[in-house]
Amino acid sequence: MERTENVILTNMCMIQSGTKVLVEEKVGKDAGGVTFPGGHVEAHEPIVDAVIREMKEETGLTVEHPQLCGVKDWINEDGSRYLVFLFRADRFSGELASSDEGRVYWVEKDEVLKTGWIWHMDGLMRILADGEYTELFLDSADDWKPVLK
Rounded to whole angstroms, how far apart are CA atoms 50 and 36? Predict the structure, then answer.
C-alpha cells in the first residue's frame, strides 16, 4: 500500500488588529475575489517561516508567532493534494504595503462575509475566526462540497 502522495503546500494568514482583519484583493490568473494573504511553501522551507515570508512579501508586515489554526485541502484532478495551512496572527510590525499579488487593506472582522469573497470563505472564518473547526476539505466528488471537520 502506497503511503506517500504528491502534495502542494501553501499557507494563508488572518492578521488581526483589534476588531479588524487584513484582507487582500488578489489579482492575476488565480484571482477570484478578496481573501487573506498567503502563498506557497518553498522546497525545504519550514512552514512557519513560509507564512512569515509570505506575509512580509504580500503585506509589508512582519508577523510574530503566527498560530496554526487548521487546514484547507482538496484533491486535484491529477491526484495531487493541495494543502493550505491556515494561520492567525495578532502581533506584527512594519508598514502596510500592497504588492503585485493584490491590494491589502483592513476590514472589520464581522464584515468579512458581506462582500466579494473567495469561495468557501464562510468555512475559513469558522476555522480562523471562530476556532469551531480545524479542517475544510473540498470534496470534488460532490461538486466541491465543503466538509468541515
Answer: 15
In whole angstroms, what is the distance from residue 63 CA to residue 89 CA?
A: 7
Q: Please write the tens of the pLDDT for every residue from 40-65.
A: 999 999 999 999 999 999 999 999 99
Sign of CA dihedral 70, 74, 78, 79: positive
What values do phi and psi take at 30, rounded to 5? -95, 10
Strand partners, 25: 34, 103
The C-alpha cell at 142 is 460532490
Q: Which pLDDT score is estimated for 141?
A: 67
Q: Domains of the chain (ranges plus CATH)?
A: 7-148 (3.90.79.10)
CB atoms within 10 A of CB 109: 17
| C-alpha of 51 from chain center | 9
